[in-house]
From TrEMBL:
Keywords: Methyltransferase, Transferase. GO terms for biological process: methylation. GO terms for molecular function: 2-polyprenyl-6-hydroxyphenol methylase activity; 3-demethylubiquinol 3-O-methyltransferase activity. Pfam families: Methyltransf_23. This is Class I SAM-dependent methyltransferase. It comes from the Bacteria.
Length: 279
């Protein structure tokens, strides 16, 4: 694993993506975590490694890795509200072809990825799932080589901005109007994560945690007048940053555990029946 990360090269790759991206002003890599995501993974795997990016969306993060020389495959259903408006979906797929990224649309017609990957990554995906991520992650990890990595980033349920909002009597969930007026099935955040959640996720999947770290991926949500103080405070208390980043290794001989016995479920949950979840 390289000791030094070339941030200059990563920033240059991110800027090249911005220049070619089909949706102007969609993201600022300095604020949305693109540089930190790339910097994290390049400490664990070298360019040339095969990456499967699940929930890749418009490829803003995937394309940075492609620019750095990684072999990238992307998966997404491309069914967000904005994906299906106009020619957005077609523009994303054209961009994938331009960046030499294989794009598998998860709509029943796409061909599942073949071969083994060095890394499977999910950025800002798990918090949108209405069901347990267990089956999805087991399926994705089955396509990762022994010794390969799971790399996830998820919003920090206890970040500083939300703690302050709660004290002021405001919701820490997405704005109610956004939820209320969202067209069709809600595709916003369902369950955000803590550091302990990330650790428990890795243990449940039978993975070795290499790193869990607080990072900044939503700086644009912090008012400019408060950003300096926010960054200073979160430097001292990294657990208050807006996002958790976890890298975990798939061990040799990994065998997934898709379910628990009834006795194990009772032991883990403390419930005598699943009906108690509603109380």
């Amino acid at each position: 694993m390289p000791d030094n990360v070339d941030l200059t090269e990563i920033r240059a790759a991110a800027e090249r993506v911005v220049a070619k991206f089909p949706f102007p002003n969609y993201f600022d890599p300095a604020e949305k975590g693109h540089v930190s995501v790339a910097a994290t993974l390049t400490r664990f795997v070298q360019p040339g490694a095969a990456i499967l990016d699940f929930g890749a969306g418009p490829l803003d993060k995937t394309a940075v890795f492609a620019e750095l020389g990684y072999r990238c495959t992307a998966m997404d259903d491309l069914a967000d509200e904005w994906h299906v408006r106009g020619d957005s979906r077609e523009a994303i797929l054209r961009f994938a072809e331009h960046e030499d990224i294989e794009y598998i649309v998860v709509d029943g017609t796409g061909v599942p990825p073949t071969g083994e990957f060095d890394v499977v990554m999910l950025h800002d995906v798990l918090e949108h799932l209405h069901d347990s991520p267990r089956d999805l992650l087991i399926e994705l990890l089955s396509r990762v080589r022994d010794g390969g990595l799971l790399f996830v980033t998820v919003p920090n349920h206890l970040n500083l901005r939300k703690r302050i909002a709660a004290v002021r009597g405001h919701s820490i969930h997405p704005q109610f109007d956004t939820y209320y007026w969202y067209p069709g099935t809600w595709r916003g955040h369902v369950r955000e994560y803590t550091a302990d959640d990330c650790s428990r996720l890795a243990v449940a999947l039978g993975l070795e945690v290499l790193e869990i770290a607080g990072v900044h991926h939503m700086l644009e949500k912090v008012p400019a007048r408060l950003r300096k103080a926010y960054l200073l405070f979160s430097r001292v208390f990294p657990s208050t940053r807006d996002t958790w980043s976890m890298v975990a290794r798939k061990p040799v001989g990994w065998t997934p555990r898709p379910a628990l016995t009834d006795d194990e479920l009772r032991s883990v949950t403390g419930l005598t029946s699943w009906g108690e979840l509603g109380h």
